[in-house]
Specification:
Layout: H1 10-24, H2 27-44, H3 46-49, H4 52-76
């Protein structure tokens, strides 16, 4: 059955892969991902501390920590001239 289908050439899907790569590496996508990561962490730890104040502090702390790590890595891993 595999022999009936021809392989797609890499050059044919190169443009599509570049679009997906640009979207996944965009800062806006990373900030949305960090927001949902922090929100999920705050919701799942709510059963332990049972306080909206502590939950909001966990959300803010997690978001700030992940945001600062992203900014530091973005600065350090920028393309360096050879």
């Amino acid at each position: 059955m595999r022999l009936l289908f021809g392989r797609v050439r890499y050059r044919g899907i190169d443009y599509d892969l570049n679009i997906i790569s640009n979207i996944l590496c965009s800062s806006f996508f990373v900030f949305i991902d960090i927001f949902f990561l922090s929100l999920i962490l705050a919701i799942f730890t709510f059963a332990i501390h049972q306080s909206i104040t502590i939950s909001s502090l966990i959300f803010t702390g997690c978001y700030t920590f992940c945001f600062s790590i992203f900014m530091v890595l973005k600065k350090w891993l920028r393309d360096q001239p050879d």
